[in-house]
Specification:
Helices cover 37% and strands 17% of the residues. The protein contains nine helices and 13 strands. The structure holds uridine-5'-diphosphate.
């Protein structure tokens, strides 16, 4: 039985990971300050004897009395409207918060994994994006606090690895969806499903020709838990290479729900990437991982979840 700390454990990915690691027979310490996440996400496990919730902002140093074997660093708002609502906080989380978690990993001799992001590729000039692509990121735009924040977090991880011999892992997560997403968080999958369920128009930003590659949460959890166990400390893309336009996503959801909702077009936010598609050659090779859940199956499960919250 391992003791595993999950920073950002009440969020969408974090709460699903808490469940998974508890089911696998571990002790889980969940750290979260509920800035963009919900305590409801952990209500089914809050009384589990192997689970402990600590309400803490990682910008402040952490003191944990028990031993820790592994740390998953998922603490950062990830939805554009939410991370843009307080960009300096987003940057602090990624810089100061990341340093605090790395210092904790050093103190406890724990292995630590960073949830980095496809956003570090910015507006990509190559497709699909391999890990070797260095990205094309605006340093002064509305998305910069997140994109540059995650870039500095990756740098900190490598420097702690090199300078302090910390066992670090870095995953670059592409757009992920599934149960426990907050229906109000402003991201495209939840916005569209919520609008359909309320018989509202579907808000397409720009012409809806920008692409994303959506992966289901279970595939991501398989990928990050495999990466944590592996010996590989350079960044690894985890995502589903099934690239579609935002308009195709909207049409797919309309078909799945027999919805009568119409499209309504709104301005494209600044620096919104035109395309996103993971090259997962590396994950296949070193982790023997690839996504298994197709978009229709995953969307059906997500619609069911959002109907019931
Ligand atoms: N988007 C949209 N309508 C919405 C919300 C988002 O057309 O109601 C678009 C958004 O402009 C972007 C894509 O969907 O091109 C994915 O947006 P999301 O916020 O989910 O994630 P990210 O931009 O970080 O990939």
């Amino acid at each position: 039985m391992k003791t595993i700390l999950i920073a950002g454990g009440c969020g969408f990915i974090g709460s699903n990971l808490c469940n998974r690691l508890l089911n696998d027979g571990n002790k889980v310490i969940c750290i979260d300050n509920l800035f963009s996440s919900k305590i409801e996400n952990i209500k089914s496990i809050i009384n589990n004897e192997n689970f402990r919730f600590i309400n803490h902002n990682i910008i402040e140093p952490l003191q944990i009395d028990s031993n820790i074997d592994e740390i998953y660093h998922l603490a950062c708002p990830a939805s554009p409207p939410i991370y843009q609502s307080d960009p300096i906080y987003t940057l602090k989380t990624n810089f100061i918060g990341t340093m605090n978690l790395l210092d904790l990993a050093k103190e406890k001799s724990a292995r630590i994994l960073l949830a980095s992001t496809s956003e570090i590729y910015g507006e990509p000039q190559v497709s699909p994006q391999p890990e070797s692509y260095k990205g094309n990121v605006n340093t002064i735009g509305i998305r910069s606090c997140y994109d540059e924040g995650k870039r500095i977090a990756e740098t900190l991880f490598m420097d702690y690895h090199n300078q302090h011999n910390i066992e670090t892992r870095i995953v670059r997560i592409f757009n992920t969806y599934g149960p426990n997403m907050n229906k109000d968080d402003g991201r495209v999958v939840t916005n569209f499903i919520d609008q359909i369920l309320n018989n509202e128009s579907i808000t397409i930003y720009g012409e809806g020709l920008q692409t994303r590659s959506f992966q289901y949460i279970d595939d991501l959890l398989n990928g990050i838990t495999k990466l944590m166990k592996s010996d590989y400390f350079y960044p690894v893309n985890i995502g589903n290479p099934n690239e579609i336009t935002i308009k195709q996503l909207a049409s797919t959801l309309i078909k799945l729900t027999n919805s009568k909702s119409k499209f309504i077009y709104k301005p494209l936010p600044a620096d919104d990437p035109t395309n996103r598609n993971p090259d997962i050659t590396l994950a296949k090779k070193i982790l023997n991982w690839e996504p298994r859940v197709d978009l229709i199956t995953g969307l059906k499960k997500t619609i069911e979840y959002l109907k019931n919250v």
